[in-house]
Amino acid sequence: MQICELPPARSVRLLCCLALLSMTLWIPRAAEADDAHWQLKDGDRVVLLGSTFIERENAHGVVEMSLRLAAPSVDFTVRNLGWSGDNVLGESRAYFGPVQAGYAHLQEYVGLTEPTVLIVSYGHNAAFAGEAGLTEFLGNYSKLLKDLSAEGRRIVVLGPTPLEPVVQSPEQVDALNKDRRLYSDSIRTLCEQQNCTYVDLLEPMQTLRNEMGVDRLTENGIHLNRDGYIAVGEVLARSLGSSLVRDGELLLRDSQFAAAAQPAYKEILWKNELFFHRFRPQNETYLRGFRKHEQGQNAKEILEFDPLVKEQDQAVQKATDDLIRNWGETKQ
Amino acid sequence: MHRNFLTLTTLLTTLVVANPVLAQRSLTEVPDTDPAKEQASFQVADGFEVNLFASEPMIAKPIQMNWDSQGRLWVATSETYPHVKPGQDANDKIILLEDTDDDGVADKSTVFADGLLMPTAILPGDGGVYVGNSTELLHLKDTDGDGQSDERRIVLSGFGTEDTHHIIHTLKRGPAGHIYFNQSIYTHSHIETPYGVKRLLAGGTWKFDSTSLELDVFCRGLVNPWGLAFDSYGQAFETDGAGGEGIHYVFPDVVMLTAHNAERIVRGLNPGQPKHCGLEILSGDHLPEGWSGRFVTNDFRGNRINSFELSESGSGYISRQADNLMTSNYVSFRPVDILMGPDGAIYVADWYNPIIQHGEVDFRDERRDHEHGRIWRISVKDNTPGRQLLPADASVTELVTMLTSDQKWYRDMARYELSKADRNEVFQAIDSAAKANQDPAVEAQLALSRMWLAEDWSGSEEALRMAELMLTHDDYRLRSAAVRVAAQWNENPLAVGIFTKAIADPHPQVKLEAVHALRHQGTPAALKLAATAVDPANDRFLEFSLWQTFRSTENTWLPLFVEDPSFFGDNPRTILTIAQASRSAAVVAPIVRMWEQGKIPDNMTGEVLQLVSERGNVGELTELWKLALDENNRHRAAILEALAQTALRRKAQPSESLTELIPLLDAKNSQVRWFATRLAGLWKIETARPNLKAIAENETESDARRGIALQSLALLGGTDSRDYLLAVARGESMPKLQVAGIEALLSMNVKLAAEAAVAALSEEGSAARVNTILGPLLQRRDGPGHLAQALKGAKWPAGVATAAVRRATSLPQQNPGLVAAIQKAGGIDPLDKELSPEEMQQLVQAIVKNGDAHRGEEIYRREKLLCIKCHAIGGAGGKVGPDLSSIGASAPVDYLVESLINPSKKIKEGYHSIQVVTIDGIVLAGVPVLENQDEIHLRDAEGKIHVVPTEDIELRKNSTVSLMPADLVSKLRRDELIDLVRFLSALGKTGELVVSKQQMVRTWQVINPEGNISGINDAIRHTGIQLATTDDSQLSWTTDYSHVDGGLRLQPLAKMRNIDGATLSIARFELDVIQPGVIGLKIENPTGLRIWIDDKEVDVKPDLNPNLPAGKHRVTIAADPGARKNAPIRAELVEVPGSQGQATLLN
Questions:
Q1: How much is the pTM?
Q2: pLDDT over 80 (residue B20)
Q3: CATH code of residue A128
Q4: Which fold has domain B48-380?
């Protein structure tokens, strides 16, 4: 079978996808529109915002890959604004300034990346404060979500991921996960009030862990390993009304698929790295900070990443299109 | 001919062909990259030799190195540094170097990992290698045995990268297996752990347990600490690559220089040292005599390796500089890391770069080297150990034997290997080794290792049992280590028992560890125990730790103390110390009550009053004021002083009987009169107006008190005060008080004061008054504007205008309008500050070719040039700007020229000034030396420290202007500038312009040559020369500094004639005896000298070696310049073999 000899111009790609869809490969088993809590559209700019959970996706590219597989016919770009240790105040982004400077930085970069879809995930760190910290957290989260909302922007909120007993006892982790349950539920209520899509990760990930037959979804009890990100990808796919389960297995865990996906992953990771330098340039003190009189002349280099990232977006789209097409062929 | 050198260079350069581009202008200085040529420049200490272990292409740009237990050297390298290029795929590497044939030269180099982004830290462990990689701490592993990493795990992430020479670095393994690493001043890290988020802003040391994944901040501060080493007893030490205090003693929770939000800091052990990178403690019986136990660290700017000897002192140490391990004049030799190896040699990572500045030189400057790098091996001559049994290949029994090795390398590696073995087997092997052993030193090392292994395995019971046992050891170092281990489990009853015992330990270091543990325990009972260690005799480390304890636990103890002031017992010293450590005003009432009840002795009254002044409420202030009304109260003056301070700093005052102040203006006690004069204004006692005028007009009063009266009148305000002060400011009445009048008027009406200032400075010869008159005026936010306005149409003498421009250009905010107005009034030419690349090239060549460093030093020392007032060399000189000891070795010539002409272009980290505007409209600029939520301590251009309460700050911003005035060198002739730069560029580079390691006396007090010389001479002649050893007020002293070579020149000193038949010049210095005993004081060439120690004249000989009790002592030297043929005075503190005595110089 011969599909798509031409470079994937928009119409051709659409054709390919239709062809693939007809092969049922990318069609979720229970693909009913009602299952979709949100949608990806052509031209979307998806921006991921949050703490270490989001930041480390940069090195995996699994969430992006999952979104692309779950919406194979959609042309979109992804930016990662994760920052380790961050909270709803943007505290990790403050550099030399007070916490408010971090909040301003967060707003600035959300503005710069112009998201049409903003995937936000906070509460992972806040939940350690337990019930005592909940009210303050919700107040600040509510403000953040309001400040982030914009005309034509869809906000998807991901709840905290479950902790696992790796360096702590099962009892300690159970207690901490109870707090995370409390935060999850409260964030869900908040999202209902503020018209954001909420995607719970806590139970679905624990369920998936059993279904995947793996011991752990984390490296160290808190931060996700690759399987963890694959599980998140599946939860997200389901929230889009899709699923990446094939023959009872998660496609991304399939070694053949993983091999075929290497080129696409490579492009995604390189795009992530280029954007990381744009978003969190090293030597900020000298380029744009209070010692800019010394190296400010080199700050222009930060902006030189913009065209590089943009160019790489196309490479990502092409590589994932190729993957989808070729994998479909292989399967035929 | 005093022509502006810039004009001259412009003329000259028209004659030459302009070609070289800016970045290449000093390329002639970049040395040959041949390692043999570099090696030829090395001078090693006696008994050592040096060889090349590895260089490019085996390795390039090494940053940190660490050994594994197989004796292989792991090196983190970065060619990308300092900054990734857009689109560049950073490909920095981890290199593994091996010397497979034991010939001291690496013969195998493997790229273990690549694709990294500025890996600045490396430590083998847990089956792989830990790597600091910009924002992350990675663990890289080779799972398939092909010698290359194939598994990459992010262990921790969220480290700041605001400055790539500050990112996480210096990974080291602590005694109990924890991983320690550092970050530097511009780094802000936010790290998630399974236990929650940990944040560290600015510099500090992290402590990480790679098993439990617990991450803690071990200590905070230091500008750029790239050296960290643990001694054999687990104590930690650090060096700072941007500080200047040599070795730092780093105990848990210590807060050091530039820590974020620091309220107090603990200084290093060697103030006045150049910057240091890397740190190793040498060990081994094979080392030449005296070298085992020495600390070695790299003066990377001066291309040399320094060594230091530490000796115990109280709870900490004192450190003395010893011989250099290696020196070089090779500009590209940049030793950054230093380690001993398994063969007992010392390995030095050479970053190899002519450029080392991070921010100050363009990231893309072509002179930056990205290709080269070396590892040098400094070995003991005739010491070829050959193949050794390496820890990786050793059995448990063999490893236990290694625990007792004379080389720390084997002890540390063996302990690490043992941590992976079977616990019972290990403990048994250690126990039987201990049983068979007779040597107490060996027994100590076995016991320590056993305890640390137990701690590593988190076996709290086992570790605590060991700690308890060790607490009975004779050696305090083991007892200290035991308490630190117990502090890991501070809630365990066993640990609590250990702390109770340790806090009463006779040795202060054991107490220090106990205080730390009790602070973390934090219960009322623990704090009561900690309080028992409060003692005025405590040294600075212990004192800090106690202060920190009561500062950070206030919420726990304060309610208990307020309820029961005897909560901490009845020792007034202890109670006051604890109260002072708190922030709260709630301590004031119980303290005042105790004072009134006579429970606090008189010598502590000042501290009680200080507390009330700083924190007391209106009721407490009123209570105090009422006490002062009793003329028999012996604390009357002190109370008034405290109330004046309160009114000034907090604008608070008593609420009753204020007018009863008036009679105090005429009190018998002069101090009472003085403070009453001040308070009359501060409290706005309108009825005191006539009295204040009378004081101002009374010519028999001191000028100072008359000036205060004027200020108080200004505070009373109104047109009456204004007109009165205007007349004074204009010199119409009381001309003697004109300057004071201008300053007083300033607080009422800036415009009028500016006009009066302009008029006052119009007279010839008033240049000396420029700073006193303009200083306060320009400090006001609206001052510069009013001054510029007032200058319209005015004429100033050129000398006044020059001094005024200097003042105006060092303001935090540039005021081109004001500078132009001053220049116009003085008829002086504006400055042309920019040099073209060609002019720079010309100048640089002339400096290198024709400059004379010795003439340059004399120019440097000229008072008018102000260099020495702000910069120190070897600790001698001002503290406003960076110490210049090795500036020549680190800064290219063009950088020096640029810094002199335009100081604001290149500002060193730690010397960036900030500007604050207070709610009173005062503008202050200075370098923040301490900053926290309550106050900022600013060091201004005069070296004066201003403490500004945060709540008084209306505006705070970073200043882009250097505190260094911009036109300092503009009045130099070209040849003078050339000599000056030649001197600076030679500093730290060549022989006599290298600050020697000896503890030379460099800061002196000499008779002020500008004082009343004949009066002083008469006083000494009549009273006798001993007068010079006292603080007699007839004598006026000023600070003078030795030349770089350590000698104090006699020629500039004032000569006292006809003193016991001779002409003498007098100089004196102070030393602080820390440990009583014989103190080595060496006087080079004592001909024509008379010397007093305190008030006793001593026999003059080269080795004075007095036996001195603890405390400060003054050494006075009278020199007969004729008899000495003007030979400079050189005095030096040396060690006396066999003496317990320890002293440091007070500079």
A1: 0.83
A2: no
A3: 3.40.50.1110
A4: Neuraminidase (2.120.10)
